[in-house]
Design a protein that fits this description.
Blueprint (H helix, E strand, L loop, with lengths): L6 E6 H15 L4 E4 L2 H5 L3 H8 L7 E5 H8 L7 E6 L5 H6 L3 E4 L2 H11 L6 E6 L15 H9 L3 E7 L11 H14 L6 E3 L3 H6 L7 E4 L10 H6 L9 E6 L2 E5 L4 E2 L5 E2 L4 E6 L16 E4 L2 E6 L7 E4 L11 E5 L5 H8 L3 H6 L7 E4 L1
Length: 367
């Protein structure tokens, strides 16, 4: 099948299960695990990750939006799914009927959920979002009383959990993160609920879990360290990248010195150069910032990307590859090119690199 594809993503089942097992051992029963599968499972394919982990020892899944929850519920029938970021009010009745857990970030949101639950004759299970310093969604700890009062009186809502989000748990300095954790624990103590959670991958590895009982495992599950600071402070934990991104050479041509390559002629050859054209571009998620900076691997040789990254095509200097031809396998992530390295050449973070790989690109499972 791969021979008929222009570009594809390979997903390693064994790597995903290995990473999950590593975290299971690390937490040693201190907290339940909730895989985060938002943004198409960080580009790894929501359906594949959901089905692969559905039978594992997890609490459930975390997504960002209600549409992701609806898609996942079609595949995973018997696990909780928590919408952490946003829902559309018109979708609430269906979500409630399907047992999807809903974020409630303030009093207005709670009222909308309660109203939507009435005609369903079912309770809406919610998790209250507390803003402990990230200043995104959530109610500040000192303004929780009206929300808590409404929830305690509501016959339509059952508060299953309280949670918050950390602003810089991946940083070298954890002082602000520790203050956020303390604010959260103090606020959470005012709720009699079964679940309390604040830890992402980095926080779950670097902070004590006491006072919480659920971790939202995101980037680490996919074999990527949240940050260099996280990796250097943790021993005894080995992660394996789950994703590899590949394509094939479309055309090979040899051009003389002083030849301009691509849009705006940003690269001029200095010698006779073997140029390969690859059927990948920024519409596929290969960022334009990689122009004249990124590298690809062809037949084990690192080849620099030359010229502007186009919407659908990029070029690379394959002069050092002896037998390159149309159809030659080319690796964009893998074979020594990590998502971190690609992120550095793009001026961004590896979260963005993998999550932006176009969802229309085929995902293929490998052992």
């Amino acid at each position: 099948m791969r021979k008929s594809l222009r570009t594809w993503v390979e997903l390693s089942r064994s790597a995903l299960l290995w990473n999950f097992g590593q975290f299971q051992q690390f937490f040693a029963g201190q907290a339940k695990i909730c895989p985060v599968v938002k943004a198409n499972a960080y580009g790894h394919d929501l359906a594949w990750v959901g089905k692969t982990l559905a039978k594992s020892q997890i609490w459930g899944f975390c997504v960002a939006y209600d549409t992701e929850a609806q898609a996942l519920r079609q595949l995973v029938k018997d696990r909780p799914i928590l919408v952490m970021s946003a829902w559309q009010s018109e979708n609430l009745p269906q979500l409630i009927r399907h047992g999807v857990r809903l974020v409630v970030w303030d009093l207005d949101a709670a009222r909308i959920v309660a109203q939507a639950a009435r005609p369903t004759n079912r309770k809406a299970f919610v998790h209250v979002k507390i803003d402990t310093g990230t200043s995104r969604l959530g109610t500040a700890p000192n303004k929780l009383i009206p929300l808590r009062s409404f929830l305690s009186r509501s016959a339509e809502i059952e508060v299953e959990g309280v949670f918050s989000h950390l602003a810089e748990s991946e940083a070298d300095d954890l002082s602000f993160t520790k203050r956020q954790l303390q604010h959260f624990l103090e606020a959470a103590a005012n709720f009699d609920v079964p679940l309390r959670h604040i830890a992402c991958t980095a926080a779950s590895l670097r902070l004590p879990l006491k006072g919480t009982n659920l971790v939202r495992l995101g980037i680490g599950l996919y074999g990527l360290w949240p940050s260099a600071a996280t990796k250097k402070t943790i021993s005894g934990l080995t992660l394996k990248p789950v994703l590899a991104w590949k394509t094939r050479v479309l055309q090979v041509k040899t051009v003389p010195a002083s030849t301009a390559i691509g849009y705006e002629r940003t690269f001029i050859t200095k010698r006779r150069t073997k140029i390969v054209t690859l059927p990948i571009g920024y519409a596929d998620g290969y960022d334009r910032q990689g122009s004249n900076k990124s590298k690809v691997v062809i037949d084990g040789v690192l080849c620099p990307v030359v010229g502007r990254v186009g919407m659908n095509l990029i070029m690379a200097d394959a002069t050092g590859v002896r037998n390159v031809h149309s159809g030659s396998l080319t690796t964009l992530i893998g074979e020594g090119i990590t998502a971190d390295q690609l992120a550095q050449s793009w001026g961004t973070i590896h979260y963005e690199v993998v999550s932006r790989i176009n969802s229309h690109i085929p995902r293929l499972e490998v052992p």
